[in-house]
Amino acid sequence: MAGFDVIRYGQAAREICDAGRFLYGRGWSPATSSNYSRRIDSNHLAITVSGRHKGRLAEQDVMVVDLTGKPVQSDCRPSAETLLHTVLYSDNEDLGAVLHTHSVKATVLSRLVPAGEHLVFEDYELQKAFAGVSTHEGRVEVPVFDNTQDIAALAADTRQWLADHPQQPGYLIRGHGLYTWGRDMAECLRHVEAFEFLFECELETMRVRG
Amino acid sequence: MAGFDVIRYGQAAREICDAGRFLYGRGWSPATSSNYSRRIDSNHLAITVSGRHKGRLAEQDVMVVDLTGKPVQSDCRPSAETLLHTVLYSDNEDLGAVLHTHSVKATVLSRLVPAGEHLVFEDYELQKAFAGVSTHEGRVEVPVFDNTQDIAALAADTRQWLADHPQQPGYLIRGHGLYTWGRDMAECLRHVEAFEFLFECELETMRVRG
Amino acid sequence: MAGFDVIRYGQAAREICDAGRFLYGRGWSPATSSNYSRRIDSNHLAITVSGRHKGRLAEQDVMVVDLTGKPVQSDCRPSAETLLHTVLYSDNEDLGAVLHTHSVKATVLSRLVPAGEHLVFEDYELQKAFAGVSTHEGRVEVPVFDNTQDIAALAADTRQWLADHPQQPGYLIRGHGLYTWGRDMAECLRHVEAFEFLFECELETMRVRG
Amino acid sequence: MAGFDVIRYGQAAREICDAGRFLYGRGWSPATSSNYSRRIDSNHLAITVSGRHKGRLAEQDVMVVDLTGKPVQSDCRPSAETLLHTVLYSDNEDLGAVLHTHSVKATVLSRLVPAGEHLVFEDYELQKAFAGVSTHEGRVEVPVFDNTQDIAALAADTRQWLADHPQQPGYLIRGHGLYTWGRDMAECLRHVEAFEFLFECELETMRVRG
Lengths: 210, 210, 210, 210
Prior knowledge:
The structure is a homotetramer.
Chain A lengths: L5 H20 L9 E7 L2 E5 L13 E5 L15 H10 L5 E5 L2 H9 L6 E4 L16 E4 L1 E2 L5 H14 L5 E4 L3 E6 L2 H25 L1
């Protein structure tokens, strides 16, 4: 397989750096947590190097991997969770960006959902912010996967779930954070904002209702 | 009817873009939600094009509609909720701006108010921020309309309610957000700030009192 | 009585404008609420004109009044609460600045404290931020006055209370906000920050303890 | 013992000033609270002068002390809590920076933990942000020392505790705040962010669970 187009890599890297400044500024990627990726072509994606400060990303913090997660033209170590990104791109050729964030709200909610249950959003106008949703009358189900250091196993689990639920816009990992995706970076960022809004609505309601 | 004055359109559009930067920055218009309008003349208003990022509005994101909601000199699609704006301008010639925002607090409170009841503010000094209120000793009642995809029906309901309560400064739609208005953009923005302040006071009180 | 020094007025006005940008930015002076003052000399103070946006104050938004609250060399209308400022300056010649703010936390807490009781801070290290407090082992008592549109009566009440408690750094008005003061603007701003910190600590504790 | 390298002092001071702008901006060092230090060499550290505004630190707000806490080439008064810094540097030659912050969350949590108990973090992915932690499956224990004006006694207590628990990344003082440290300023700031994230997770969970 031939290499990747360096112009497209550069643009993907810039979009990732800009996303990082936004997400860190909101408090959703603290303390070098989180990882982000952007498709370059059918076999390559740009992804954040492991352990970098997400509010100060520059091009040297973004590397290229192929769809098996192997670094391409780089000695850097990609995010430990690279496989969670690559399975998403492998199974959906329209998917252009993946953001994994790590907010307080996502973390707390993911620990409060009982094992085996999903987080469910209903009757929120903002559900329409998710691609393909045109009414508040539907129901968005967000699965919560148990956290693990065995990323390959988790990647297989998420891949199976997505095959069964191709329209869902994201999932949570317990005590860990959110994965969401989109056709391009703008759509993916809109999904992060919508999820964070809905997480905060749910928590605020729980605070008040006790 | 003749066309609109393009200088006045340009000024209205700039005011809308500036309002968007402020409201998005506060977190009150996330994920391309919300819509804003500004009167141009007795038959035309400037209004946001459907689906745009509210923190990065530019002139191409603001179009003109007449008081029936029909686009004027534009092929863009206006906000799906345009009729909720036009009924306000039609019935009150002093009204110059309408802002529909979409905060977590407004969304959560609107879902907590029991069906058939209003949200009521009493004994808050900040009630004086609403036009025409000169004491904290009054009572501000905010109705909560059920959310619907039938905007024409909702427009008719809000119109009837406003005819009966001409002094009220805003209303909520359940799970959806706030509509408020003013003589000009500055007054309308002051109303948004006052509502958001009072929403947060009510929620904070509910959190503590349980 | 001779006029005031215009250079000192200009400096006082700039300090007030800068304070406004800070306090509005924190969300403590929303929707044209709040008023601020700075002593010019033994008989004059600079104070905000009524109804101005506190995040965008410029020199034309700051006027001069004498210690009876009468405008000096100005046709503007001073804040409706000017007398609450002047009684503080009249009785304490070392006092150089007064800030009245209007945060959600101050508003909510002031409504939760039972009638006739004070808000009390104990065992917080940050109590040392108040002028004259050198240990966390003391006790800061913050009275809560009932809100009223009769500012002259409220001014007399606060004056009496301060005569009896000369070391206290501030008071609340129910449903309305905080008054605090200092030798200069820097000390007064430090007091606002300390009060807001302590208000939030108290509310957070109440949220958790229920 | 010879003096310190002034170039290294200048760099340490700049890192402290930058840290202050960040920490104050987040609301974690309000009202002139907090103190920060950075190692210069085996016997000297740069530390904030007592009582300065942490969001506006400049080089004149950072002085040098030796490992006994005595000022070197300065007439300024170092932070009253200087000994809490020096015992950390004395016992760990790899330690390069110490940050004491003073957030609402740290203050409230430290008062809620029952006397004699520790705050414990378990099953949070973000525990991996602490140096030396490579899995979320461990357990981070944060002791809570009682607040006191006797800093020498508190310094001795913390020193003993650290000798017994050399891998722990920080501790709390009741009603007062957080102490954390790192090899360099970047690691130390990452620890502050991780602690604040975890404090907020714990409080949010307590709010919801009641």
